[in-house]
Each structure stands twice: as C-alpha cells, then as structure tokens.
Amino acid sequence: MRTRPFFVFACVLWLTTGGVAEPIEPQPAEGPTDFAALDRFIREYTDEVEGGAGRWAFKIEGVAVMVLADQAADRMRIMTPVASVADFEDGEYERLMEANYDRALDARYAISGGLLWSAFIHPMSSLSHEQFDDGLVQVVLLSANFGTTYASSDMVFAPGGQQPEGQPGEDEAPPQHDEPTTPDRRGAPPAPRT
Predict the structure, then answer these.
(1) Vertex 99: Cα angle to 125 and 80 (nearest 5)
(2) pLDDT of residue 59
(3) In terms of Cα–Cα distance, which of 180, 185, 151 is closest to 166?
(4) The domain made up of 28-161 is a member of CATH 3.30.1460.10
(5) Rounded to the nearest 5°, which phi and psi values hold at 57?
(6) Whole-angstrom distance between the N-terminal and C-terminal Cα of the chain?
(7) What is the Cα–Cα distance from 58 to 118, expressed in whole angstroms?
(8) What residue spans define the domains of the chain?
(9) Are 40 and 31 spatial neighbours (Cβ–Cβ below 8 Å)?
(10) CA angle, 171 as apex, 108 and 162 as ends, to 5°?
C-alpha cells in the first residue's frame, strides 16, 4: 500500500515534535546571487582577494581557494587543489569514490588536469549566503581531511545505517586530529535567517 510509509513518517514526525506545528516565519528575499553578491560573501573571509567578476582567488587557513562563476550558465564553483594524481597510493581512487558517497556531503572530490580537487558546485542564481558559507567550509575540510577521514564535515551519511569502511562505529571513538577539522574564519558566521 503506497500511503503506509507516508502515514508512518507523519506519525513519527508528529510524535517527535509534540504534535504542535511551529509557525513558519517568512524568509526575507535575498534576490538572485550575482558577481557582486559572491564578492561580498568572499570578502567576509578575507580582504586579500585576487580577481573578481567571475574569478576569485584567496586563502583560508593557508588553503588556496578559487571561486569560478558564470552567470550565463548559472553555475558557481568553489574549489581547491588537493593532491597530484601521480602521487596516489594503491586504492586511493576507491577511497575517494567511497568518500564521495557517504563522507563528502555537498563538496566532492574531482580529478582534472592531473590534480585531485575538492569542489562545491551550485546554481549561482539560487545560491544563498548560508549555502556559500557551508560549501566553502566543506571544500576546505575535504581538502584538509584527504588521506585521513576523507570527510567534508563531522556528519557521515550512510543509508541503511551501514558504517562506511574506515569510519568509527557506534562503540568506537571518532579519529583524533592534530589540527582542528573546522577552519577558523574571519568574524563569526552569519546568523541563521529565521
């Protein structure tokens, strides 16, 4: 019966929220993201930015980051080089593909020009300030975690409750890092728009 999963989901949702729906606050309209908006987003992290009008380069936590945008194609990409493909160890391609499935959330590993990249790609016009922030943080984390957790955040999305290979189970402690896995940013992150 097709309606049973929906009914079960609705009941679980009702039980976990106490059966009371919170009113939804209207969100202020941001308008479509353009080159000027992307420039503002980037400059919240650093004033040392090269380029503009569709091509920006800057550093976050010593990581070289590029933002490429094309208004006509309505695409935006945040990316950083991670490693040379020539330096890959045996099994590295498989680890990258597994990470792209369950540990690299919105940012992904990609290969181009003999280099491994960490990249976040999104339609430009509908990109929100929060999505840009989240994408940038994930790109930097995915780059920093190459060779260890291969993760873009603390979250692991493993459908069906399966723990991905190389990730701690419920009884195991998460891996310890010598360096923080979240980059410090200039200023506080923007407050959620509620």
Answers:
(1) 50
(2) 95
(3) 151
(4) yes
(5) -135, 135
(6) 38
(7) 15
(8) 28-161
(9) no
(10) 45
